[in-house]
Amino acid sequence: MLVEMPSDVAPIPYGRQCVDEADVAAVVRVLRGEWLTQGPAIEAFETALANKVNAKYCVAFSSGTAALHAAMAAAKIGPGQRVVTSPLSFAASANCARYVGADIAFVDIDPKTLNININAVADCDALVAVHYAGLPVNLRHLRERPRIVIEDAAHALGAMTPDGPVGNCARSDMCVFSFHPVKAITTGEGGAITTNDEELCNHLRKFRSHGIVRKPEQGDWYYEIEELGYNYRITDIQAALGSSQLEQLGSFVGMRNALATRYQQLLGDFSEVELPPTAPSGSWHGYHLFPIRVADRRRVFDSMREAGIGVQVHYVPIYRHPIYAELGFESSHFPETEKAYEGLLSLPLYPLLTKDDQDRVVEVLVTALSRG
Ligand SMILES: Cc1ncc(COP(=O)(O)O)c(C=O)c1O
Questions:
Q1: What is the pLDDT of residues 125-171, one digit of tens each?
Q2: Does the beta carbon of 15 lie inside 6 Å of ligand 1?
C-alpha cells in the first residue's frame, strides 16, 4: 500500500548540495577573470584541501572516478596484479582496477561496520578501502599491508580516525575524494587525491594532463608525452567553488552528524528499523549516507518514493552487475553483503534538511512500516 504525497509538499531528495552566495561570488570572480582552466584557482583549492586534511600534496581531478583511475596508474597497478575492494560500493571503486587491466577481487563486508572485512584482506597488490557511508575503515586492523593502499573516501571528507583526518594518508598511499553534489562538499563534478608521496603526486599530475612533461630548456613551447595520459583536469570554475565550499566543511559535516543523531533518536524505538553503524570513540563519521535496514525493503522504498521521499539504495553489490557477473563472481560468495543489500535503504541526509523535513521522512517511514 502506498502513502500518498500531499500535493502542496515538495519532494525531499536523499542528498543535495548546499551552495550559498559566497560560493556563487567565488565562481563569478573566476568567470570574470583570466583563467577558466589551468589557472591559479586549482592550485589554491589543492593547497586548501591538503591543509584541511593534513596531507603534503593534493591533485584535483574532473571526477572521483578519474582520480581513482589516476591512483591506479600512478601506483603502477596493471595486468597480472590483484586489487581488492568492498563489494558494497559504487562500481567506480572496482572499475578503476579494470581500467588499468588489473584483476579485481572482492572481500565480503563486516556486518558491524558495513565496510570491507579488513581482517580478511590478503594476497593482493592493492587495496581500495572504501569508507562506506562516511564511516572510516579501520586500517590498523590490516593484517598484511598490500604494496598499495588507496582510500576511497568519496563518502568521507570531513571524517576522522584516531590517526587524524581522513585524507592525511597516515596508513595509506593515496586518498581519493569526490565532489559530486551529494557529497560533503561539491564542485559540480570533481575529485581529488591527497598523498604524502612526492613521486606519486608528480605522476598523478602528469596522468591528469595527457602524460605531458614540459621541457623549457628545449624551448618554451616544448613538451613531451611520456605516457598515455588523459584529460582529467578540473576547471578553475569548479576549483573556486571547491575552495569556497571547503570553508564550510566542518559545519556541513557537523550538521550531517546532528541530523544522524536525531534520526537515531527518532527511530531508536522501532524494532523494525536497523540503524546504521556509528563511529567508534576517537573517530568522527562523515555521514554522507544514513543507510537503515528494513524488512520488505522494496515495498517500503516504493511507498516512501510515492510519498515524495527520495530514499535510495546504496548499493547494488558490484559483483551483481553484469560486467562483473560475467567475470564469474557469485552472490553466494558474499553472504554478509547479500544480507545487508536485502534491507538497505538510505534516508535523506544533507545539511539543508530541516527538522520538519526529517520529521516527515520519519512519519512516512513509520507509516510504511506499519502497513507491512
Ligand atoms: C564510493 C565511491 N567511489 C567513487 C565514486 C566516484 O566519484 P565520482 O562520481 O566523482 O566520479 C563514488 C561516487 O558516487 C562513490 O560513491
A1: 999 999 999 999 999 999 999 999 999 999 999 999 999 999 999 99
A2: no
User: What dotted CATH number matches 249-370?
Assistant: 3.90.1150.10
130 lines ligand 1 (CB under 6 A): yes
Per-residue 3-state assignment (H helix, E strand, C coil) for 115-152: CECHHHCCCCCEEEEECHHHCCCCHHHCCCCCCEEEEE
Residue 67 alpha carbon, nearest atom of ligand 1: 11
Where in the sequence of the chain do the CATH 3.90.1150.10 domains occur?
Answer: 249-370
| pLDDT on residue 6 | 57
**Architecture in CATH for domain 21-246:** 3-Layer(aba) Sandwich (3.40)
Which part of the chain has CATH 3.40.640.10? 21-246
| pLDDT for 1 | 42
CB of 93 sitting under 6 A from ligand 1: yes
Q: Are 349 and 259 in contact (CB under 8 A)?
A: yes
Tell me the whole-structure pTM to 2 decimals.
0.97
